[in-house]
Design a protein that fits this description.
With 60 residues, the protein is an all-alpha fold. The chain has one helix at residues 4-59. The model has no long low-confidence stretch (mean pLDDT 81).
């Protein structure tokens, strides 16, 4: 039979691994979400710039 100390160490290692995995997953999700938001914002700004640029060249 495994000792109580070994069981506690195994439980601590397992819980630590799970906790670390959750933290890393949440951080990645946040990072990817912010990248996606920036890309969509950049896309909208680019479209507005292109429309203004095209309109300016039509007028001149």
């Amino acid at each position: 039979m495994i000792s109580i100390l070994a069981q506690e160490r195994l439980l601590g290692a397992a819980l630590g691994s799970i906790f670390t995995g959750v933290v890393v997953f949440e951080q990645r999700r946040h990072i990817y979400g912010s990248i996606s938001d920036n890309e969509s914002q950049f896309s909208v700004q680019s479209q507005v710039y292109l429309k203004c640029y095209a309109l300016f060249h039509i007028v001149t």
